[in-house]
Amino acid sequence: MFPRKKPVPDNPLDGTGEEMVIPSYVSFDDAAARTSLWRMLARLPSTVVSMLATARATAPTTVVVLLAIEITSGVASGLGLYSTASVLRQLLTTGPTPQRLIAALPALALVVTFLSVQQLGGTLSAYLSQTLSARIQYRAAQQLIAVASHVDLAAYDDPNWFDGLDRAYDSSMAHIAGAFSRMVTALGSLISLLATAVTVTALDPFLLPALVLSTLPASLAALQASRLLYDSVRRTSTLRRRRWLITRMIRNEEPAAEIRAYRAQPFLLQELQRIGGLLEQEEVRLAGVQARTTLLGRVAGGIGLGLAYGLLGLFLYTGRIPLAVGGAALIAIQVGRARLTDMLLAVSRLYEQSLYVADYDTFLTDAKGRTHPGGGRPAPTTPERYRVEDVSFAYPGAERQALSHVTLEFRRGQIIALVGENGSGKSTLAKLLAGLYHPDSGRIRWDEVDLAEADPNTVRDGVAVVMQDPIHWPTTLRANVRIGRIDRPDPDDVALRHAALASGADVVADQLPHGWDTMLSRQFVNGVRLSGGQEQRVAIARGLYRDADLIIADEPTANLDARAEAQVYESLATLAAGRTTILITHRLASVHMADYVYVLHDGELVEEGTPLSLIAEGGRFAELYQLQSRNYQTGPVPAPAEDGG
Ligand SMILES: Nc1ncnc2c1ncn2[C@@H]1O[C@H](COP(=O)(O)OP(=O)(O)OP(=O)(O)O)[C@@H](O)[C@H]1O
């Protein structure tokens, strides 16, 4: 069992131990994973229906052909068995051997024919089921990614979301296709089994229980072993994701320098070892319980088989069945056992995979619940007023509020600066203003439209965000800027060059070996890696190319040199005309370009006013401003002479 107590964090990378606890999101499914065998079997029909529906949506004709083939080969196997019994009957009657052989020939021909049909059907069915499985797998993975890419940003603050996503992705890639193949196998075996059961019953109805007795226990044990495996996979999913994150840090280019500079390898390796140890412990535990379960099943199966043969012997001894029928019954029992074993093993695998398919379905439902349904009032295209009304907001799962009762307002055309110390809530407020999150209480309005009721797509259309840590798309420089508004027609690159000029990205393009067509990722041939400042210029160009009414620039010049910074502020000032600009910055000198400043502290709005009035007031802003400007007045710059000369 995993420890449920928090371990003592002796490693800086130690988590709280929470990853060892089953997340609340999975508690329902976890309960399902611990359910009884009978409830487990009861869920199979819904899986079969869901798989058939997926398969029909993917390739309807193939599904029908596949089912027809399975039914044909199942019936052929039953008839083959019946013909085998006829052959035996002919061979075991009295009379000269050559005559008996000749008499058995027609039945023998039937056996060969039916077995050939069965073999041919099996081959065709395997081929069709494999191709269909591959198509189902790609379709499921595509659907999953499409749904995930549209969920609201808030999902990404919830660790359970990542667990669900990882599990569903693994399921869609590995198990959905497998579940379909298993279902075909189970269906084929079931049809064959029914045909065998009919044959056995035709020979003697009392032989049927013997058949069931000899197979059922081992198959039930297989089902139980599958359930145990699934339970274990669920319990370790967060842990495996953590291992994956750490190995990804070691594999990726970006953290490589810092890991080495800080010599952080021992910490990472120690953490990997810790996780590996826990997973190993779980594997050993699982192997033990699975082995016990399988052994019990086999012992019970052995007893069942003994009883079956005993029953057959009794029938022969008492003369209930003749020797010929006994021989045929022996073969039928063996064939029937093989069919039942095939079917129950396929069902056990199908059951196991049905749990993963359920994960996938649960994830899709969960993701839809986390996605704005679309629609709503269209946001105004050129709002005159933006209002934040008594807004409070805490990130999902966070104990502290990131914003508390914030009220402010600004008009179109203004440049608004949001300032405050680290963690004061500036970026959060900007994200709420952009409609990326919604307040827990209070409202954000563009004119009269409450963003919580607005169509998110129209809100997005009205905002250009230059993020603090912008994405670097692994594509060309040109596409990196154009992605700002991918559907904007710009045949002669006029808008592109305009945005580039204003942001300084034109200089970046001039410095690159293939100009605008340079690939911005070293993981591709001829790709390059930009410097932090160059990346920032490209991100600003992307924001400007978006040509939106509200520009949110979150620390847009943090990585820029002094000249580029001056250029960006100049451009922002020019672009601000007729638009609204929200500037988040720690460079308080640049705040002078703002019309109005809001100062946040611990999520609360503590000061507001024009830059000059705030400096004059001598409050928090003035204090931060003085602290920063002192850096420019000391050091190498000589203090002014006392006489003022
Ligand atoms: N995605 C998130 N999930 C949970 N908490 C978050 C998230 N983003 C920010 N926070 C928390 O919200 C608070 C406000 O963060 P925010 O990023 O808005 O501050 P900021 O003023 O922009 O800081 P900085 O100047 O460092 O960029 C902080 O306590 C931060 O830890």
From TrEMBL:
Record domain ABC transporter: where: 386-627
Pfam families the UniProt entry points to: ABC_tran
Family matches, as SMART domains: AAA
Membrane-related topology note: Multi-pass membrane protein
Protein name, per record: ABC transporter ATP-binding protein
UniProt-annotated location(s): Cell membrane
Membrane-traversing stretches: 61-82, 102-129, 179-200, 206-230, 295-317
Database matches in SUPFAM superfamilies: ABC transporter transmembrane region, P-loop containing nucleoside triphosphate hydrolases
Keywords: ATP-binding, Membrane, Nucleotide-binding, Transmembrane, Transmembrane helix
Residue ranges annotated for the ABC transmembrane type-1 domain, each copy included: 71-352
Annotated GO CC locations: plasma membrane
Molecular function in Gene Ontology: ABC-type transporter activity; ATP binding; ATP hydrolysis activity; ATPase-coupled lipid transmembrane transporter activity
